[in-house]
Design a protein that fits this description.
Elements lengths: L1 E2 L22 E3 L11 E5 L2 E5 L5 E2 L1 E7 L6 E7 L15 E10 L2 E10 L2 E10 L10 E3 L4 E7 L5 E8 L7 E9 L4 E10 L8 E9 L2 E8 L7 E7 L7 E2 L6 E2 L10 E10 L5 E8 L11 E10 L2 E4 L9 E3 L15 E3 L12 E2 L7 E3 L6 E4 L12 E6 L5 E8 L8 E9 L2 E9 L5 E9 L2 E9 L17 E7 L3 E6 L2 E7 L5 H4 L6 E7 L8 E11 L2
Antiparallel strand pairs: 1-16, 2-25, 3-4, 4-6, 5-27, 6-7, 8-9, 9-10, 10-11, 12-13, 13-14, 14-15, 16-17, 17-18, 18-19, 18-20, 21-22, 22-23, 23-24, 26-40, 28-29, 29-40, 30-39, 31-36, 31-40, 32-33, 32-39, 33-34, 34-35, 36-37, 37-38
Length: 546
C-alpha cells in the first residue's frame, strides 16, 4: 500500500502546438504552462489539488483543482489577504518558496517558506477545511531552511521534513525531520537528520516522504534547479531513519540530454495515487529554445510504477515527454482554465490569473464604476522598485503569443506613464508606455531596463493627442498597445506601427537571473513624482499564436 496525502488541479493545454492533433489516449505536457514552479499535489477522494511557488507575486500560492490530473482549474490563492506575509522590499525571486499541500482527517495543510536574499527566513503552515478557503493566517514553525513537507504516518503522527545547510559538514545540505503537533501546530520532540543526498558535493532539497509496502521512501531533488536538476531517493524501515541512498539515483533527470532537448531542468517531484491505484508524479521542467527559456519552470505530469527497489519514474520512456499517455481515469471534458482571450474588466473582481507585486493594488487598480474597463491610478512606485507598484500581470504561457491592450491616458508631465509591460524582474523588463516629452507633447515610448539601467529604445508621437487635450477623458483617445512574440523575439507595436523588437533571450531566465518566468501586464507610474493621473484600460487580450 502507498501512503500518500492526496491533492490536484485542472490543466491548461499548451497552445504552442494548437495546430497539431493530439494522438488518441494521450495528453500534452506541461499540464500547467507558464511560471508554476515547485509543484506539490494531494488527493481527496476523486479530487486532486495542487499548489506552486509564487515568489514575490501577490496573491500568493495559487491552488488548482482537477479530476483527471491533466485539466486544471485554479480555485483560489492560499495567501490572499493583505498583511498575511511581508513581501515589500523583496526581489521578485524571493518571497514564497516551494509549498507542500497535504490533507488529513478533514483538514488541508500547506507548509511553505518565506525567503529573503535567497535564504529561508520563515517556515509556516496554513490550514483550511475547504480548499477554496478561507485559509488561516500563517502559523510560524521553528524550522530551519527551505522546502518544508508534511507526512502523515499510519499511526496518525505528522512529520515535517525540510532541507537546510548541513550542521556537521557532511553536506553541503541535509534533510531533517521533526514531529508536528497538529493540535498546537507546533514542532515537538527531537530533530532527526535523515539524509545528505545521493551525489557527493550536491545540495539536496525538496524532500517528500511516502510509505509503500511498509517501507519509507524519501524523494528529493539534487543538482540545483537548472540543467543538472534531478530526482533522487533514499529509503528506511523506520520513519526517522536511518535512510539509505537508492543506488539507482537519479531516478529522473534530463541532465544527460542534448542541449536541444525540448524539456530540461527536470526535478522537484511530488507523487500522488489515483483512485484506481496508479501513481503519477508532478515535476517541474522548462522548455528552452536555443538554450534559453522565458516561460519559467512549468508543471509536467509523469507516470510512476513501483518495483521491489522503489518508485520507477516514466517506466515506458525514462523521461518526461511532451506527449504522454493519459492516466487510466476517465478524462474530464473541457480544457481547464480559459485564461486566453479578451478581458473587458466588466466584473467587480479581477480574474485569478492576475497578480500584482508584493501586495494588493486594489486601492489603485480596479474595474471602473461605469463598467467601461479598468482604471489605473498612477503610483509613485516605478516597476524598478521593490515596493508595490500600480501593476497587474498574468503569466506568459506560450512561446508564440500576442498580447494587446486598448488604453486611454494623457500624461501631465514626462514622469507620468502608463501602458503595457513585459516583466521578468524589477531590474529586467520592457515597457511600452504612454507618456509625454519635456514639452508636454504626448508620446509612446519603448523602454528597456537591463541590469538595473533603463534605456529608451524608440519613441513616436501619440496619435490624436495634441498638447492641451482633455486628459483622462473616458473612452477618448484610445491607443492600441501590442507585443507579439515567437521563437526569435518580442515585437512591440503601437496603433499598428512597430517600435522595435527585442531578442527572446533578453527576457530569459538565463539572461535575467532568478527563478521566475515572464509576466505580461498593465502599469501606471509617476516615477517617484507626485501625480494624480489615471489610465483607462478598455480591454486586454492574450492569445497564443499559431
Amino acid at each position: 500500500m502507498l501512503t500518500l496525502s492526496f491533492c490536484q488541479a485542472p490543466a491548461r493545454e499548451s497552445a504552442d502546438f494548437a495546430s497539431e492533433r493530439i494522438p488518441l489516449h494521450t495528453f500534452r505536457n506541461p499540464v500547467l504552462p507558464g511560471c508554476h514552479p515547485d509543484p506539490s499535489i494531494c488527493r481527496v477522494g476523486a479530487d486532486f489539488y495542487l499548489v506552486t511557488s509564487s515568489f514575490a507575486y501577490y496573491p500568493g500560492l495559487p491552488l488548482f483543482h482537477s479530476r483527471d490530473l491533466v485539466r486544471w482549474r485554479q480555485l483560489t490563492h492560499v495567501l490572499n489577504r493583505p498583511g498575511q506575509l511581508p513581501l515589500r522590499g523583496l526581489d521578485v525571486s524571493d518571497g514564497i518558496w516551494a509549498p507542500t499541500i497535504r490533507h488529513h482527517d478533514g483538514t488541508f495543510y500547506v507548509v511553505s517558506t518565506l525567503a529573503v536574499n535567497r535564504r529561508g527566513r520563515l517556515t509556516f503552515v496554513v490550514t483550511a477545511e475547504d480548499p477554496e478557503g478561507p485559509w488561516s493566517d500563517p502559523v510560524p514553525l521553528d524550522a530551519d531552511g527551505i522546502d518544508p513537507s508534511l507526512f502523515f504516518d499510519d499511526d496518525g503522527r505528522c512529520w515535517l521534513t525540510a532541507c537546510r545547510d548541513a550542521v556537521a559538514g557532511a553536506g553541503p545540505g541535509e534533510l531533517w525531520m521533526r514531529e508536528l503537533d497538529l493540535d498546537r501546530l507546533k514542532l515537538v520532540g527531537p530533530t532527526h537528520v535523515l539524509w545528505h543526498g545521493a551525489v557527493r558535493g550536491a545540495w539536496v532539497e525538496a524532500p517528500h516522504l511516502y510509505k509503500h509496502d511498509g517501507l519509507y521512501h524519501l524523494i528529493a531533488a539534487e543538482g540545483g534547479t537548472e540543467s543538472n536538476h534531478s530526482v533522487t531517493a533514499a529509503r528506511a524501515n523506520v520513519v526517522t531513519g536511518p535512510y539509505v541512498t537508492d543506488p539507482r539515483s537519479p531516478l529522473l533527470t534530463h541532465r544527460h540530454h542534448s542541449l536541444d532537448a525540448p524539456i530540461q531542468n527536470v526535478g522537484h517531484a511530488d507523487l500522488v495515487e489515483t483512485p484506481d491505484g496508479e501513481t503519477w508524479a508532478v515535476t517541474l521542467g522548462v522548455r528552452p529554445i536555443d538554450g534559453v527559456h522565458t516561460l519559467g519552470r512549468e508543471v509536467f505530469l509523469v507516470p510512476v510504477s513501483w518495483s521491489a527497489r522503489g518508485p520507477v519514474f516514466a517506466p515506458e520512456s525514462g523521461g518526461v515527454r511532451l506527449l504522454e499517455r493519459l492516466p487510466s481515469m476517465a478524462p474530464v471534458e473541457g480544457n481547464g482554465d480559459a485564461t486566453t482571450g479578451r478581458v473587458r474588466f466588466d466584473k467587480p473582481e479581477l480574474g485569478l490569473e492576475w497578480n500584482s507585486l508584493r501586495g494588493p493594488v486594489s486601492d489603485r487598480i480596479k474595474p471602473s464604476a461605469d463598467g467601461g474597463g479598468l482604471d489605473i491610478d498612477l503610483s509613485p512606485e516605478p516597476l524598478s522598485s521593490t515596493g508595490v507598484p500600480a501593476f497587474i500581470a498574468r503569466r506568459q504561457q506560450h512561446v508564440r503569443f500576442r498580447a494587446r491592450a486598448s488604453i486611454s491616458f494623457r500624461a501631465a508631465h514626462a514622469a507620468e506613464e502608463a501602458g503595457l509591460a513585459v516583466f521578468q524582474n524589477q531590474d529586467h523588463h520592457a515597457t511600452l508606455g504612454l507618456t509625454a516629452d519635456e514639452n508636454g507633447a504626448a508620446q509612446i515610448v519603448l523602454t528597456v531596463r537591463e541590469a538595473g539601467i533603463s534605456s529608451r529604445l524608440a519613441s513616436a508621437a501619440q496619435a490624436g493627442l495634441a498638447h492641451g487635450a482633455q486628459p483622462h477623458a473616458p473612452h477618448a483617445d484610445e491607443t492600441l498597445l501590442e507585443v507579439e512574440a515567437d521563437e526569435n523575439g518580442y515585437t512591440f507595436r503601437a496603433s499598428g506601427d512597430t517600435l522595435g523588437t527585442l531578442e527572446r533571450s533578453f527576457f530569459s531566465t538565463e539572461h535575467a537571473g532568478g527563478f521566475v518566468g515572464v509576466y505580461l501586464g498593465l502599469y501606471g507610474t509617476s516615477n517617484g513624482h507626485a501625480g494624480q493621473g489615471r489610465a483607462r484600460v478598455h480591454w486586454f487580450d492574450y492569445e497564443p499564436a499559431g
